[in-house]
Amino acid sequence: MPGTVLLLAASPVGKGCLVDAASVLPVLAAVAPSVLSGTDTANIVELADPLEPQAVLTRLRAAATAPGPLTMFVTGQLQLDRRQRLPHLALARTTPATVRYTAFPWHWIADELRLRPPGSTTVFVDLRTDADTWTLLAGRPLTVGPSTALYGRVAPPPPRRTVAQPAYMRAVATLLRSGHRPPLLQLHEQALSRTAGEEPARPGEADLVFAHGQSWAGRPWPPEAGFTTVTSPPRTVPPSPPVPPTAASALPTMPAAPPPVPSASPVTLPGQAARQVGSPGSDPHGEITAAVRDGRHDDALALAGRREREALRAHGPGSEQVLHWVEVRADLAMFAGDPERSCRAWLALAGTRLDAGQAADAPEVESAVDRAHHQWGRIGDPARARELGAELARLRQRVPGRREGALDHVRQQLRQLQTQA
Fold first, then answer.
1. Helix 297-315 crosses helix 284-293 at what angle (to 10 degrees)?
2. Of 145, 165, 269, 272, which has the fewest Cβ atoms less than 10 A away?
3. Which residues of 229-254 are buried (b: 16+ CB within 10 A; e: fewer)?
C-alpha cells in the first residue's frame, strides 16, 4: 500500500522570523519518496511558507484520510495565542498580534490524526519558539495525539536579530538521502548526534527532545543521568473529530479544539477511558476506522453508539467520555454522507455544552457550532435545511465563532431557502 508524506515548512516573513524553515525543503525533496515514507511508493505533499491556516488544514486532512502509512516532516516556529494560551505554527503572515487568525493551531494536528490506526503515523518536528511558547512548553510538552509517534526537537528562541537554521531536520534529510531508512529511533538518535556537532553551543536552556511519548530537556540522545524527563500531560477532554472540506468559502472553516488544562495530578484521556469500557485489548477507534475505510458506515455508527451507551453507564450524562462519542458519531455521519444527521449531532453537542455552563467562546463550543454550520451547508433537502437552519441561526447569535459574517451567512441562506418553499 502506498504511503503519504507531508512536508510542511512555515515561518513568518520579515523581522518576526525565528528560523529559516523553508531552507530544508530542497534537501527533503531530494530524498526518494519510498525512503521518506518507508513504503514501496508514496505520494508527496509539500507546503512551503503557506499563507493561510485553511490551506494547511486542507492538505493535512487529505493526508490524514489517505490509506497507508503517513509521515509528516514539520519545520517552523511556534507562537502563542495570547487569549487562549495555545501554541500555533506561525505562517507567512503571522505576527504576535494576529496569531489566533493567521497561524495554524498546533492542536489541529492531533484533531486530524485522531482516527488514524495506531502505529500508522509518524511526525518529525524541528521547531523554534517565541519566549512565551517556550515557557508554556516547559511544563506542558508538545503532543500530536496518543496514537502518533513524535520525534524531533523544539528549541528556545534564538538570539535577537538571528534567524536559526533547522539543523535537526536537515540532519534527518541528509541521513535519508543515503537511500537507507533506519529504524525511526535510530534515525532520530543519529540526527541529534549530527545536530550536536553542527550547531554551536548555545547558552541557556537545552532543547526539548521528543521520542516514545516523552520529551527530554537536553541532548545528546539517549538522555543521560541528570537530564530531566518530562512526560506529556494528558488532556482532560478529547480532541475533536476532523471537519470535512466544503466548497462554500463563506462558511467558517477554522475548527477549534479544547485548550490544554494544567495537570495537577495524572488523569485519564477520555479516548483511553472509552477503550477501557470495552473488552480488554479492544481498540474501538481502530475498529471504527477500519469499518469506515471498508464502507461499513452502519457498523461504524453502531459501534460508536454502543461505546457511547457504555460511557453513559460508566460516567453519566454530560461527561466528557459521553460527549467524545457523540462527536465521533457526528463525524461518522459525515463520512457516511449524511450531513443532516451530522448537523443535528453537532447542534445537540453545542447545546449540551452551553447548557452545562461552558462559555460561548469556549473552543469546544465554537468547534461544535462551526462543524454544524459546515454540515448544514451540505444538506440537499430544503425543508430539512430550513428546520436546522433556524436552530443554527439561534446558536450563531450566541456563538458567532472566529470568522466574521457567520450569522449573516446563515440568515442569507435561510432567505434563499424560504423562496424554495
1. 160
2. 272
3. ebebbbbebbbbbbbbeeeeeebbbb
Question: Do 208 and 137 touch, CB atoms closer than 8 A?
Answer: yes
Q: With 70 as the cut, is the pLDDT of residue 183 above it? A: yes
| Nearest partner of 120 among 177, 165, 69, judged by Cα | 69
Is the separation of the CB atoms in 11 and 18 below 8 Å? yes
The C-alpha atoms of residue 51 and residue 121 are separated, in whole angstroms, by 25
> Could you tell me which of 206, 208, 271 has the C-alpha nearest to residue 235?
271
Per-residue pLDDT reduced to its tens digit, 231-273: 232 333 333 334 333 333 333 333 333 333 222 222 222 333 3
Other beta carbons within 10 angstroms of residue 296's beta carbon come to 15
Parallel, antiparallel or unpaired: strands 3-10 and 70-81 = parallel
Backbone angles phi, psi at 161, to 5 degrees: 60, 25
Of 135-144, 180-189, 208-217, 403-412, where does the model show the most confidence? 180-189
Q: What is the mean pLDDT of the chain?
A: 78
Q: Would you mind telling me the total number of residues written for the chain in this entry? A: 421
Backbone angles phi, psi at 145, to 5 degrees: 105, 150
Give 334-390 pLDDT, tens digit per residue.
888 888 999 999 999 999 889 888 888 887 888 888 888 888 888 888 889 999 999
306 CB neighbour count, 10 Å cutoff: 14
Q: How far apart are the first and last CA of the chain?
A: 49
Residue type, 382: P
What are the angstrom distances between the C-alpha of 101 and each of 172, 247, 275, 309?
31, 21, 35, 37
Cell numbers placing 159: 538570539
Model pTM score: 0.56
